[in-house]
Amino acid sequence: MLEFLKTKTGPIGLDIGGNSVKMLQLASDRGKTVVIAADEAHLSPEIWDDRQTARRAITAALKEILARGRFQKREVISCLPSSELIIKSLRLDTFNDEEVEKTIKSGIAERFGLKAETHEIRFISAGNIHQGDEIKNEIILFAIDKQSLKEHIEMLEEAGVTVAAIDTIPCALFRSLQRSLRRTADQEKANVFVDVGSGHTTVVIGKAGEIIFAKQIDIAGEQINRQVASRLGIGFDEAVHLRSKLREAEQTKEIEPAMRQIVVDSMNSVIDELAREISLCFSYYAVTFRGQRPSQVVFAGGEAYEQTLIDALKRHLGVEIEVTEPLRGFDLSKVDFPADKRGMLCEWAVAAGLCLKGMEMAGRDKVYERN
Questions:
Q1: Which residues, in sequence order, are bridge partners of residue 8?
Q2: pLDDT of 143-182, one tens digit each?
Q3: CA 44, CA 18: separation in Å to the nearest integer?
């Protein structure tokens, strides 16, 4: 009779990516975490050429998903757009959070073109580091233009949802993937998570349950597709289709070896550049925190299905790569995901992290937060 009291439904995790809108909703049911709804709508790459066009397309996609009626409530936790989010690392002599905030707002933020009057600025303390003989406080700064944030929230409200919180992709990704680190040994070492999406690649390094490094790289699936299109003299959509066939051929062996090699060769220059950027993140971590260069990386995002890409990055980076299953351990019996995703669902990592934030917030006042 009172079984419903044991079920707690969280807000919808809303992940607006470069080529799709994903919505995910979790519930806690007698000790189990259940995925009660999941849906997505695809976006055309051309919408990003114009801000208003993108807004109309995203609003329409949200309304389309909500009209299907799979979600309970209309509260969402959304990410700040990668293209608008600013992430910087800096070192301060101050260690108290209140003093750090004062120091940032009193002038340091302006070094990065940021002002308290025009930007929302938040930070994470990544821990103490040695700089010569001195000990410094390593700070990860997150910022976004206030007008961009206002427009993002207005767009969501126009689509008919209520904003419960605002997050960042690095924080959502870390929250999603670190839940799988159950062993003490995993918690004590540095854990590296990389999400290769459509427009951006996100690199997050954490230790003992805290983020100590975060960066967004503007090299990802879209850049690979454009390179393939340019090298082969075909349209963008044709390049996307060809890469899709390549992924399928990795399982079915239907694509001709010569064509496969042409596609792989055309991807290489972008993959080389992406690998260099990721490698620089590893080097920064090793030097800053005096730790060993990472030997294992967990990958997420839609591009993680591309075995050719993963194999190439593995060779370039010299690390072991694991492709994550962010919804592993959740009850998926109430939803149907696309069958062609091979059961990994690695592109849902960010949405899952947003949902987990919502579950943590349950019972608290709704606020606009960053992590």
A1: 28
A2: 999 999 999 999 999 999 999 999 999 999 999 998 876 5
A3: 8
For 1-84+145-180+326-371, the fitting CATH number among 3.90.1150.10, 2.30.42.10, 3.40.50.2000, 3.30.420.40 is 3.30.420.40
Q: Residues of the chain with pLDDT > 90: what percent?
A: 60
CA distance 321 to 128: 29
Cα 39 to Cα 10, 64, 247, 335, 338, distances in angstroms: 16, 10, 23, 9, 10
- What is the end-to-end Cα distance of the chain in Å, rounded? 37
**Alpha-carbon distance 327 to 180, whole Å?**
10
CA distance 276 to 7: 46
Place of tokens 């899952």: 352
35 three-state secondary structure: strand
**In terms of Cα–Cα distance, which of 263, 278, 262 is closest to 315?**
278
In contact, 283 and 203? CB cutoff 8 Å? no
DSSP-based three-state secondary structure for 38? strand
> Does the 182-323 domain belong in CATH 3.10.290.10?
no
Output 235-238 pairs: Cβ under 8 A, ≥24 positions apart.
Answer: 236/45
233-258 pLDDT, tens digit each:
999 989 988 888 877 755 556 677 78
Residue 154 has a pLDDT of 97
Which residue type occupies 278?
I
Tell me how far CA of residue 96 lies from CA of 93, 122, 128, 345, 371, in angstroms.
10, 15, 12, 40, 19
61: tokens are 């996609």
In one-letter notation, the amino acid at residue 2 is L
**What six digits make up the tokens of 163?**
């904003």
Phi and psi at 329, nearest 5°, equal 95, -15
Task: Summarize pLDDT for 1-33 with one digit per residue, the tens.
Answer: 344 445 689 999 999 999 999 999 999 888 889
